[in-house]
Amino acid sequence: MKNRNIFSVSGLVIFILFSAYACKKDKTLSAEAGEIISPVTGTRTEFTLDSIFLYASQVYLWHDALPSYANFNPRLKYESISPDLVAFRQELFDISQFKLNSVTNTPYELPVNSGSAKYSYLEAGRTTTGATAGIVRSANVLLSSKLISSGALHIAYIALGSFPKLNEVQSNLDQAFSDLASGNPRYIIIDLRSNAGGYIETAEYIANLVVPGSLTGKLMYSEQFNAKMQAGQASILKNQPYLDADGKMVSYQGRKATMADVDYSEGGNTYRFNKKGNLTSIEEVYFIVSGKTASASELLISCLKPYLHVKLIGEKTYGKPVGFFGINIDQYSIYLSSFLIRNAAGWSDYFSGMTPDITVQGVANPELGNPEEPYLKAAITAINGGTKREAAIKTAAKVMSVPTSSILISNEISTDAGMRETRLKLK
How many domains are contained in the chain? Predict the structure, then answer.
């Protein structure tokens, strides 16, 4: 197996700022060879406007829907908009609206908030190191963890507020799931109602804590880049350096590695289960979800669906089966939707969100872990009323007295900026 390097993309930008007096001639390169056609002279703002479009023309998941550079003409469209950051964000938004979902006949990136693409975004400042699926402002991974009895049934419950960096929360996760394993539960309720995502590695680790050992080696999910990326034809990425986990340049074939040297094939970006912990009794998983459940949280749900009995309780999720890696352009970082997340069944079509099996209306300031709280009560009821159960159980659910990791840190919702992938590997 190839080593999974962690990288960030900082350093080079697509353009070189030539002196306005050095060259007045537009330079055209071979489009057939995957190169770029654009002017080599201009202002700093013009070059940034060019770069946003030119990166999208090769890296964007739906690049096939974009017009040519000449027809899009970013300089003409956006140069007069001030300040520059507004112009750059407007350009990115317009790029994101070209590709239509054939089912809904609306853009895949139809904005949830007016003027902002559903997934892609641009921010001032350069991307830094870190294997993240999103920017997590809060480290509140464990909001509550306990065992619940309902008649003869033992049910594990855990509320996860975010997916912080794994090395910061692994020991807490291990302890919480070990405590849950002491009850030998067949059912687990995973509360993701306030979890907008975070680090992919943490979502993967939690999946591996839940599944039985028999799934080790089975396909978890894959990342599918566009055809140009998979064929190694995104030549523009030669302008982005490939860095290791410490943010240092990497040597590759006698030179410094660039993002063009990465393996973007689906096979090279396929991830498999590797059982963790001693919780081995889970047969059914019930997820509590809401419109805030997104990104890596949806990935956790998706990758378990082909193998376990999975039910969703609550409201429709956000709908984000795509991810990206950061690209630096001058003093900005751009995140273009770059790959599609596919589970073992090839499923990825939840752009409009995952529809709950049992709908429950949201409540303000829920008491997480309370069996009478509406979402959790609905999940427990579903477990009791499911098929292949013992006789109907009418005993009220209660928290078991066995030792558990009851960790109520905060109900604060983490801030997620999308599913970033920074564990890409060189060819």
Answer: 1
